[in-house]
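Exam review. A common question shows you a sequence with its structure tokens and asks you to describe the fold in words. Practice with the pair below. Do the first one on your own.
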Amino acid sequence: MELVSDISLIRGEEELFDRTAHLFVAATDIACAADDLYTWALSRPSLTRQGERLVRDKRIRKLYRPGVLLNEQTARHLHHLSGLGAQIRIGTEEINETILLDERVAIMAGDEGKAVRSYSVISRPELVQGILSLFETAWLAAATLETFDARFADIRQETPQMLEFLTTGCKDDKAAKSLGMGVRTYQRRVSELLVALGVTSRLQVDARARELGLL
């Protein structure tokens, strides 16, 4: 497997995959950690037949935050990948958005707040092993897709209405009544939704939901 360099800084997804596409094709073991399906271009919810064959032919592990399960399309995509043989887990803790190829190359995503996102491509063995150790720790602490999705099935159905209530400042008692549940149940569901979105307060819901394409 040809490496691009010891450590390279790349700007933008287009350049990233122009320079590393051959590494993805050659790799037989791919581990990916991301906040959502749109961090990495090759993870977006559209698979060609060739892409499906590549999934079947490789060991693929994908670790995501719960927000990916709040959208019906992305949830179906993950279950489809799982059916092809990819191992998928969901973790609630912050993760370093990373791809590891054959435990020899690590690609780390930079700050997404920049106009053009940067990516570090690392092949220095001691650095790759350190990144791999962090991934393995997060992987072991995460839940399987099936286990986590069972918890979020109800929340996913209620998400559109709950997001509308939260972003318009609707009172909890009125929102709960609209959903046919008690106030405490509604507040618990809101807390679960905040975890799924990866935010810590209701004030952050609008921006995060838009990032995930939920609004």
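Now try the second one, then compare your answer with the model answer below.
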Amino acid sequence: MTRRPTAWHTATVADVRAETSTAKRLALDVPTWPGNDAGAHLDLRLTAPDGYQASRSYSIASSGDGTRLILAIDEVPDGEVSPFLVHDLRVGDQIEVHGPLGAFFVWTPSTEAAPRPVQLIAGGSGVVPLYAMAQAHAASDDASEFRLLYSVRTPGDVFFAEELTALASTGSLHLDIVYTRAAPPEASVPPARLTAERLRDAVVPAEHSPRVYVCGPTPFVEAVSRWLLDAGHKPGDIRTERFGGS
């Protein structure tokens, strides 16, 4: 895979919209952006009038050769960067971004006639890079089975809800959502935390050797990784990305 050049770029905010009650979706125009593969991330840097700078890493929800980036930022209470991005950033504002970053946690289409299945597992806002993978898969000629297991608190906390539903309706993505606090009325399973048993029943079995991508808060990623290993998945088949406060 050819690495895309990494550098600092000036991004202009093109659109800001609500994603959930605590998150915003940001569209950034970056004329010098070299494009990125699905699953990549970037560093975003803010500079205060007094010169103080703060930077954080965020997953990119878009991929390909375009120069418009999509981010989905969930506010972290008492965070240094995310509250500004969620509440104060406006269309026309300029910020600095550094990337694309993360060659390990990316998905690119396979050229194999019978590619291995892909299992995505997300906790909360950890779905952002996995959504980029699902979107890229749907736009490609890759024939691999694609599944997403998404653990989220309530229906109102689902990121990219309409887009994921649309991908599932076309058959390019098999979508399983686990609601941990409140489920929609039509749900057949009451809300409950994801367990090792429920995960094992929902994911592509280990004997099919899926490539597995896991993203979410550190405790979630560590638990899921342990359950996958216990279920027989090989360590080399599991790729993880985790996050904390921002």
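Model answer, second protein: The mean pLDDT is 95. The longest strand covers residues 7-20. Full marks require stating both points clearly.
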